[in-house]
Amino acid sequence: QKEVEQDPGPLSVPEGAIVSLNCTYSNSAFQYFMWYRQYSRKGPELLMYTYSSGNKEDGRFTAQVDKSSKYISLFIRDSQPSDSATYLCAMSKNTGTASKLTFGTGTRLQVTL
Amino acid sequence: ETGVTQTPRHLVMGMTNKKSLKCEQHLGHNAMYWYKQSAKKPLELMFVYSLEERVENNSVPSRFSPECPNSSHLFLHLHTLQPEDSALYLCASSQDGRAQAFFGQGTRLTVV
After folding, report:
1. Fewest CB atoms within 10 Å of the CB: B31, B76, B77, B95?
2. Distance of CA B67 to the CA centre of its chain
3. For residue B4, what is the nearest residue in chain A, using CA coordinates?
4. CA gap B70, B77 in Å, rounded
5. Is A44's CB within 8 Å of B31's CB?
6. Per-residue confidence of chain B (112 residues) as pLDDT tens digits?
């Protein structure tokens, strides 16, 4: 069983829709949760960072963490064609002297006009 | 200068060649990483350097050899690679005590 499970998609939605992206994980030691956006032929770009359970909002993006269910979500409101990318969830057990991230496989999102 | 810069962006090499990937970070971070990204697979952590010392080697074959001369620079030396090593190689950096890592644009490596 993978430590982090993420549906690879592709997920296709019309412009303006609310998008929900999700990851589940098996290791309860994970405490730090991130979402990265990766455009084709580019490196991952950090979108959202959350520590422990709860919600965090930044513009059109909301990240949710439910540690009791080992489930994290990213919501995108009023989706735009420029949101078309692969979204990677990542998580870490501690910060220590270096952060070692465990990633999901990524969900490819296509926002159509 | 962007935060994390990788060169070259693309590399094609034969199985008997020796080449090096370079990474430079301008964020003042003190930890640097090499990740491998293959199609339909999660990013795989290869090496971790903290304060210029290697703190992790995730069972990476010896044909990959990292070097971290200072906290701003990281290299990945490649020799006698196999076609299955073709992938996107990503460099990242982070600050001690923080979970967030920041990535470069990657080097697309093709081994022929």
Report:
1. B77
2. 10
3. A43
4. 16
5. no
6. 579 999 999 999 999 889 999 999 999 999 999 999 999 899 999 999 987 777 777 789 999 999 999 999 999 999 999 999 999 999 999 987 788 899 999 999 999 9
